[in-house]
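= Tokenised fold =
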Amino acid sequence: MPHPSSPRACSLSRRAWLGGTLALACSRATDAPAGASAEPRSAPASARGRPSDTHSRGSGATGPGVAVVELFTSQGCSSCPPADRVLREITTKADAAVLTLSFHVDYWNYLGWADPYSSGRFSARQRSYASRLSGGRVFTPQAIINGRHSALGSAQGEIEDLIRMEKGVAASARVALGFAGGKLTYRVNAARSDLRFSLMVLQRAVHNAVPRGENRGEDLSHVHVVRGLSEGTLAFEGSEGATGYWKPDLAGLSPKTLSAAALISDPSGAIVGAAQIDLA
């Protein structure tokens, strides 16, 4: 049987996941793009504290477009370090309209190394995208651009083409963020009210040695690593738009190393507005 990290990796079906079954069976090579690892599955998921446009970067209502790149990656997957380097390069070159996020999934943790940044919530977010964008296929490294496009995470040229294309699409939601007293506050203005939000805290840069697993002996680096996530439905209140706050758990994290981001999505999952703010 091929090793789970190979392009002919084993994969975990939607039926088996929902039923809690973890039986392994070989998948077809088409279950993941070349250079990716398919998820295991069985055969036949500011001090003012007020939102202020001067404090956040991102989209304006019916203004210039924004491009959000969500990389689903894992320190337990040997195919992922090249994608982590691609995200770092894109982040370094990015202008204010580009937001990059690194979501570490947990389904490779059984290979001998538990990714310290991983979460089952991030894996669930990826599966939600996969059900719409990749025929149910879940693989790493996977890049999702504006909730509309899926690409191999190490395919830098393709990702950059999608970024340029999405920046040309006017954003339909305006997002403003503020941070004070440990609370991340937000305000969203949009022409429609059936929108959802994703608020997240991210560590701008991390690195650590990996003593076990597929990347044994490597010193891996990541950018914009998501460390906390809050999701929900926006509640609009007339001309004031939708406002609210989230008090993330920052235990063990220095605000000097952190940023926060807000993504606004429509019922299809497409991102229609976004913003980012440094917490210190």
About this structure: The longest helix spans residues 120-133. The chain is about 15% helix and 35% strand. Residues 1-30, 42-61 have pLDDT under 50 and may be disordered.
